[in-house]
DNA sequence: TCAAAAGTGTTCAGACTACACCCATGA
DNA sequence: TCATGGGTGTAGTCTGAACACTTTTGA
């Protein structure tokens, strides 16, 4: 099992980035290269339990707001030595939680990845593609955002995860209409430059939910 | 590995049904119940190759127009005896190809499944949900339809796979606008009841392709 | 009073559904 | 010429992108 764990970093600054959790290999093969966290499955646990257990060594498990299966990588020669099959997972950690990391482990921006071990590079790319797609038709943003947030913050989070800037106006309307976000009624304090105080929102659910199931060919009625 | 292989049966009649390929277990455990085709992975093949090899015993491999990974089922107690992990696949066979089947193997309508072995029932349900979703945002219909077809036939195929009737008019326009289907220029002969001859179409590609990537939050421009 | 940030209003285009209407064929 | 099945026209709704404009704050 291998997990691609994402978090949006630097939410308060103006240039947030989508980061992925990697650890640096101390031993051959691929010494010095960066790898996804993971490990072997035990006989008494299922895959999801196993991934959560493996990640507990890297990040606080309670901070993983969403975890789902991605693809299985099974090419016979994908790693040297005994034949190994990798079942990959997508994990999401909300901002701004910054759990303590072991010394060999770091967050890396997905737009500037270090040399990656084995076939872990394509796995990160696959995971991001899946995240991008799900941002547009599910409420999966709940797993990246703080509990309460201003719309401009959410705009930056979506922008980092999608890889392009989105309009806060339309984000509010799309997510509002679908019932994905709810206003809390409270407002944030403006920064030192002034500006109108921002209304705060939260995600309505903290479980993934498909909000826009059919692009076309939806059932009649 | 286990494969959920679908085909739409009775395309020429007026009530086509979505069928799944099952074989009946002759031995305990679960003797007499119906199971998905599959088998064990060899050390020198990847999962896709393995699934194709396993299915060759059941259906002609050339008839599998599409094959993709689904989920991994890994609960420790999902089958009795030694712990087994099932990686499931979705396979699609075009109509009206009707390959010869071994005596223990049959097509069963998904709406009227026999008693299923182990956890294979939920696997079929999961596969159909994925198929339904992909019909609306990809060109995956190519793997269920004949090479050339009238729109009313395609309407029945989509209806069987989706579980509800669709409008042939709008199907034509949606798939036409997206470039999924192309008119061949030829027409079919009317049946004995008369009626205007139907124009024939074919799918433009025979490889899966996402046609409607973003439900919302698409990139600017 | 001005700049900055947030929020609202408005317009526009595209996609999809539903349904009425027209066309071509066999008996 | 009529029943049958196929195809086209069209209206109407909904969604979302873009962008101008207004509101609320700190300095």
TrEMBL record, chains A, B:
GO MF assignments: hydrolase activity
Keywords, comma-separated and alphabetical: Hydrolase
InterPro entries hit by this protein: NUDIX_hydrolase-like_dom_sf (IPR015797), NUDIX_hydrolase_dom (IPR000086), WH-like_DNA-bd_sf (IPR036388), WH_DNA-bd_sf (IPR036390), WHD_NrtR (IPR054105)
Domain Nudix hydrolase: 1-131
Signal sequence annotation: none
PROSITE patterns reported in the protein's UniProt record: NUDIX (PS51462)
Pfam families: NUDIX, WHD_NrtR
Protein name according to UniProt: NUDIX hydrolase
Organism name: Mycolicibacterium anyangense
């Amino acid at each position: 099992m291998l997990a691609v764990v994402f978090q949006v970093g630097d939410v308060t600054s103006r240039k947030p980035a989508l980061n992925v959790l990697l650890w640096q290999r101390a031993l051959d093969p691929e010494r010095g290269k960066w790898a996804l966290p993971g490990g072997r499955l035990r006989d008494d646990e299922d895959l999801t339990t196993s991934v959560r257990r493996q990640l507990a060594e890297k990040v606080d498990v309670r901070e993983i707001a969403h975890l789902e299966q991605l693809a299985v990588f099974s090419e016979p020669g994908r790693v040297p030595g005994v034949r190994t099959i990798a079942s990959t997972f997508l994990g999401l950690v909300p901002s701004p939680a910054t759990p303590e990391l072991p010394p060999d482990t770091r967050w890396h921006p997905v737009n500037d990845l270090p040399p990656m071990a084995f076939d872990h590079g394509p796995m990160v790319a696959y995971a991001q593609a899946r995240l991008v797609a799900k941002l547009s038709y599910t409420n999966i943003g709940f797993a990246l955002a703080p509990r309460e947030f201003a719309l401009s913050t959410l705009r930056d989070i979506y922008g980092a995860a999608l890889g392009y800037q989105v309009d806060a106006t339309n984000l509010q309307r799309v997510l509002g209409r679908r019932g994905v976000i709810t206003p809390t009624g409270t407002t944030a304090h403006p920064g030192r430059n002034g500006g109108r105080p921002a209304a705060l929102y939260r995600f309505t659910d903290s479980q993934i939910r498909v909000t826009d199931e059919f692009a076309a060919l939806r059932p009649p009625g």
